[in-house]
Amino acid sequence: MVRRPRRLLKNTAAEADQFRRRALLAFAGVVLALGGLSLWYFRLQVWQYDDYALRSEQNRIKLRPVVPGRGLIYDRKGRILADNVPAFRLEVTPNEAGDPRDWLPSLGKLVELSPDEVAEFQETRKVSRGFKPIPLKMRLTPDEVARFAVDRWRYPGVEVVSYLNRRYLYGPLLAHEIGYVGRVDADDVEKMGEDIANFSHTGKTGLERSYEDVLRGRIGFERVETNVDGRPLGVVGRVPATPGVDLRLSIDLDLQRALVAAFGDADGSAVAIDPKTGQVLAMVSKPSYDANLFVNGISHKDYDALLNDPSRPLYNRNVLGGGPPGSTVKPLVALAGLDSGLREASDKTLSTGEFFIPGQRRGYRDSHRGGHGWVDLRQSIAQSVNTYYYKLALDMGIETFAEYMHRYGFGGKTGIDLLGENTGVVPSRDYKRSISTEPFYPGETVIAGIGQGYWIATALQLVRATAAVANRGDMHELRLVEARRDGYREPWRELPATASTLISDNPEHLLAVHEGMVMTVNGPRGTARAALASAPYTIAGKTGTAQRSSRKGNISHNPHSLPYHLRHTALFVGYAPAEDPTIAVAVVVEHGGYGGSAAAPVARAAFDAWLLGKMPEGIEDVAVTALPAAMQPGAATPADAPADATTDATTDATTPEPGQ
Predict the structure, then answer these.
(1) Which of 200, 269, 288, 327 is labelled catalytic?
(2) Which pLDDT tens digit goes with each residue over 613-648?
(3) Rounded to whole angstroms, what are the CA distances from 357 to 352, 432, 540, 547?
(4) Rounded to the nearest 5°, which phi and psi values hold at 279?
């Protein structure tokens, strides 16, 4: 018998219960998914709305820096010395332009690119951020702008940008004082921060560097709407840039030109200041160079020519230079003798032509063979009597001597508003100890009294100390900038007076030194009489000679017969009119011979230009409205002048001062 399988009965209730459980589980999953999605949308739309809205806006809106106009620089009469002119440059954004090998060769057929420009672009590209534009070529010509515009579509990331280019209207005339701007490089970013990268140029030397913070202004921004390709569609917002501050210098352009012309073919330095304020009226370092060469990147050829020129045109002799002051410090040594109580103005010293340190057989010669006889302080200055100062320095001792010279500003900064000023050297035991194990010998003290030996003084220090004698002992810090303004329509604001110190509180002592300096020019045996006594105003001054070679025995020689590199440095310091001085000068003529014959005539040209308005022959006055694009100074610069020789600082150095 076959058994049939038992038939299972359907459990409807269990199935319904199972379905409900599964439905609830699916529903919970859907609810959780929708909840999570809602929370995600809430996070995007509420919590992070600002962040994503900003990102979206940045995809549509780009910030473009707006570079302000650099502040202008004027002379004391309102004549523009440095301005800005419209120009165009070619900029490349590396991220958009791609590999330069793909587009640079063909671009070079549209726009002339020098090897220097390409090399500088490649170097900058290595350290620059890819989204920041890099200048490829400055100062495009109109033809180059037009040619590039036709094929612009071939070069994504390459743009022609308008800008204001710095221009120095008088080229070499004020290159060392104003300095120059140059293209921003990696060193500038490291020193001044990322903000400077928004500017194409920054101050490199001179006042352009010293006053960079105020001259460059503050950067602005434009909000530019772009399409999906990054092409600008229009400006939707703007934060205006703040233009740089204008500067007015105390320099007088006519006086500057007169001083440069007076040097002729000679090299050297000169400074003229107002003794009552310390404002610099003129400042010359010869030879010079054209600052415009550096604005958009100087070529290797031009730079090598300047760098290898033996006359060192890039070297600022007033700020970085210096050398033995020679007899120009004798008035100050005389003042130290009076203030220290070691001398009275009426005390006399016998000059026999040779001075001997007690107990020594070696002699130190005077400037005149046979000596000057008995001389007092005034005559010692006028006739430049070495013996008087040999004995005075020895009696004073080197430490007291150094103390007074520091009081007169030597061995320290003058306060000039230029970077890198050389402090110079005042002879002292401490200084010699820093360079030698030898003791400080009495002979070195002797020659320190006539400005020889371990002396390094700049023209800035010399003119400042000389001006203090003219100004009844009040010595001011020096400054080139006298006023500033925040815009063309704004008034000029005078800078506060510079700080001053009193080098001597005894009017009688200062008067005695002053009278000796007047006798230098107007006395019968004054060393500057031949060059300056004919002036229609009274000059007080002092000649000086810093030797590069010394006489042997009693043999005298004409310094101009020596090889050029061995010729003495000629110096002169002075002020005028002597009764109420308004100008003080210091002149240094390299390889010039004697101060009375080489440096004093340069000072005379400065005095004539300032006091009489008389310019050297062939140099015309410059009107306030006359703003030539370029102008060369009135004096030529020799291209074959040999390098400056090392100054002889041996103990047999003397300062010959015949009655030139």
Answers:
(1) 327
(2) 999 877 765 554 343 333 333 333 333 333 333 333
(3) 14, 21, 32, 21
(4) -70, 135
Place of tokens 């390098």: 643
Q: Amino acid letter at 638?
A: P
* Greater pLDDT, 131 or 4: 131
Task: Assess whether 327 carries a catalytic annotation.
Answer: yes
Q: Cβ distance 372 to 383 under 8 Å?
A: yes
Q: Name the 3-class secondary structure at 564.
A: helix
User: Chain centroid to CA 459: how far?
Assistant: 15
pLDDT at 632: 34
Between CA 386 and CA 394 the distance in angstroms is 12
- 3-class secondary structure, 309: coil
Decide if 443 contacts 478 (C-beta within 8 A). Answer: no
- Residue at token pair 């003529």: 589
Report the alpha-carbon distance of residue 387 to residue 355 in Å, rounded: 6
332/348 Cα distance (integer angstroms): 17
Q: How far, CA to CA in Å, does 604 sit from each of 36, 269, 283, 334, 528?
A: 93, 15, 15, 25, 10
What's residue 548's pLDDT? 54
pLDDT-based confidence at residue 55 (cuts at 50, 70, 90): low
Show the tokens assigned to 217.
Answer: 């202004």
> Cβ-count burial of 529 within 10 angstroms (0-12 exposed, 13-18 middle, 19+ buried)?
buried
Q: Render pLDDT for 131-143 as a digit per residue (tens, 0 to 9).
A: 778 888 888 888 8
Pairing of strands 73-74, 246-249: parallel
Q: Residue 2 phi/psi, 5° resolution?
A: -90, 130
